[in-house]
Structure formats: structure tokens, C-alpha cells
Amino acid sequence: MQISRRSMLVAAGASALTLPATQALAQKAEFTYKYANNLPVTHPMNLRAKEMTDAIRTETNGRVDIQLFPNNQLGSDTDMLSQLRSGGIEFFTLSGLILSTLVPATSISGIGFAFPDYDAVWRAMDGDLGAYIRAQISKAGLVAMDKIWDNGFRQITSSSKPILSPADLKGFKIRVPVSPLWTSMFKAFDAAPASINFGEVYSALQTKVVEGQENPLAIIATAKLYEVQKYCSMTNHMWDGFWFLSNRKAWERLPKDLQTIVAKHINAAGLKERADVAELNASLQKDLASKGMLFNQPKTQAFREQLQKAGFYGEWKAKYGDEAWGILEAASGKLA
Ligand code: X2X
Fold this sequence. Notes:
Bound molecules: (2S)-2-hydroxy-2-methyl-3-oxobutanoic acid
CATH superfamily of the largest domain: Bacterial extracellular solute-binding protein, family 7
Largest sheet: 6 strands, mixed
Mean pLDDT: 94
Number of helices: 15
Order of helices and strands: HHEHEHEHHHEEEEHEHEHEEHHEHHH
CATH architecture of the largest domain: 3-Layer(aba) Sandwich
Distance between the termini: 42 Å
Structural class: alpha/beta
Low-confidence stretches: 1-18
């Protein structure tokens, strides 16, 4: 912990020192804000964010300078969420499922097998379900931009065996992000889930603290998880996305005209990121197979039935309440 904190400070200092152009602009910027996230620099999130911060600097004539801190440079998701709340960082992208540790309703979009495809996802997240979730986030003192960014449909990887049916998950030591919904879902599969922040996933897999993990292909590829995992089972067990969040006080310090420009570019970058990620998730299987991963396509109906049987849907319906569950089912069809 201490070592990673120290190296993170060094990394943050070093990137400011090696970017004189950014620094020159930062000196005349009226608003120098930090945007931090947990993903590798090569993931579309960071490629589009880089373009976005450039576009914001240009259109605001240098008044708003957003500095990018990818790859957990500023700490784990748990750390970054507290920094966002205290104002230590101004922007942060976080999975709704992890944000649910602060705002319980935000994990609802990650309910197992709720969305059959991206059309259904964007209809819900750009529609009533997304609006409902953003309203809950707002009540907690954070601002969520209109367009949620994509993480993708999640697949299970393993170093020990392919997951062919729900029975293969029995006792399976799997890393899940820090989120009650994730733990509950893999307990319903009878697996042995361990909550681990993303920054520690590669080493947890490498040292075999856990056998497996689950993530979309774009992350399995950019975070090089294929180096420490052999099998990839295309379970598509849930969809996940990243809310683009701002500290409310920092957001409100921006004059209205700047808010409009910043929000416009963040949302536009989010739409481009969605297209990039969907393309990667559809095309990466071949690439990962050529790197040695063995793929299989399990029948997902059995996994769904296992969740039903374990009482997973009923339990979460009761937690979210009838209003929220009704909005989810209006988009997903009947779940419980
Ligand atoms: O932690 C993960 O697995 C990740 C990168 O997918 C999220 O941020 C939820």
C-alpha cells in the first residue's frame, strides 16, 4: 500500500514535469481540474478522454484545463471515490456497481442477464433507468453527466478451467469488484468471490490468490489479463458502464457557459468511447485467441436459471424497491 502510494505520487509529479505544454496552459487556466480513472492508457476510455481534454482546453481558450490520471495513478477506485467526494479530484469515472457502496440504487443496471444486447442497454441508460439513477447520484452530492460510458458485457476468465456450466462455478475462487451486487451474484452461483480493487487484479491472478475474474474483452486485452489467464468463457452475464462523475462544488464553481462546453465534450467523448468499446468487444476474441486464450461459449440460460433458483432476483427486487425494479423491467422484460 505504502509503496504504491509513494510511486503514485512520483508518477503524478513526473507526468506534470514531463509535459511542459500542459503546464504552461495550466498556469493560465482559471480551472485546473483532475480527472482520474482505473483503466490502462490504451483503453478507449483514456484515448477518448485525452481528445476530450484537448477539445475542452481549445474551446474554452485555455480557461479549463482537465488533467488526466489513468491507471489508478491516484489510488484504487475506493480511494478515488473518497477523493472525489472530498474535492481532491474533480472528475472520476466509476462503475455504477461500485458507486452503489455510496448510492445503493446505482448497481441496478448490473443485474445479471438484464440486457440482451447494446440496443437494450442504451435504450435503458439513455432513457428512464439512467435518469432514475442520475437523480439518486445527485441526491448524494455528486454530478453524473448524461451519457454513461461503456465498460461492456462481462466474460469470465480463469487460469484453472473453462466455465462450461453453472456447476463449474461451484467453489470457484473469483475476483469481483468491491460491490455488494457482484458478491451476491457470484454467491448465488455458489462461487467463492473475493472483493479486490482493479489495480490489484493482475497480481492477484498472477500469484493465484484467485483463479479467475470477469471483465469485458476490451479490459482483458488492454490490462493484459491474458498473460495470467488461460480460459475465457463468453458468459455475457451482465453489462457494466462507467458514470462520468464530478464533485458538485467543483462543478458549480464553473460558470454556466463553461459547464455547457465541458458537459458537451464529455458526453460526446462518451458516445465515441461506446462505439470504440463495442467494436473491440466484438472483434477481440480472435486477437486474444492468437495470444493463447482458449474460448468457449456456454449456454447462458442455465446461469440465469441458477440465479432464479438461488433467489437472486427476488432479493434484489426487494432491496431496490418496486419503483426502481419497475423501471428496470420496463427496459429488460420480466426478471423476477
Ligand atoms: O474493476 C473492474 O473489473 C472494472 C475495470 O471492470 C471496473 O471498473 C468495474
